[in-house]
Amino acid sequence: MTETQIFDADTITGTLKRLAAEISERCMKCTNVVMLGIQKRGVPLAQRITDYLYTENGLHIPVGALGVTFYRDDIGLRRRIKVPQKTEIPFDVSGKRIILVDDVLFTGRTIRAAMDEIMDNGRPQQIQLLVLIDRGGRELPIAADYTGKVISAAHDEKIIVNLKETDGIDTVISQRSI
Predict the structure, then answer these.
(1) Cα–Cα distance measured from residue 58 to residue 85, given in angstroms and rounded to the nearest whole number
(2) So where are the chain's domains?
(3) What pLDDT, in 10s, does the model give residues 101-139?
(4) CA geometry: angle at 111 spanning 74 and 125, to 5°?
């Protein structure tokens, strides 16, 4: 197995600050903006970005968490059933401009599941997508509005995001079998 580092801790920090600046530029006059992180790593990414938005611009954006396990279209097809993650949405999504946050965008199926869950909770004005890594390989017509880095990864290649909040370290690596 070969491993290649895509991001180190400093690069993750710089990328999240850049994404926060992009949100700030696009949303200077936006109202009703909230962030929903997809469990597990989308939540700390969303929290860090909102922290930067508050520190740099004084923008207070509420954050929630989506656990999309039961909304996935492959729930009965997996050999191992994932432990369901908790959904915590401390605000009404109706009429909100939602920025949905995830670590890696691959097939688009997790994002579709997240949008289904959001719609079951209300009718937002808009949903935008922010991802740290877009690795290509879409099976559904889904694209990110905010992207940390676009890479071209083989279908059998794994992109692993580690965050200090969940894994004790900030890094993004690519793993490929030889």
Answers:
(1) 31
(2) 9-24+32-153
(3) 999 999 999 999 999 999 999 999 999 999 999 999 999
(4) 135
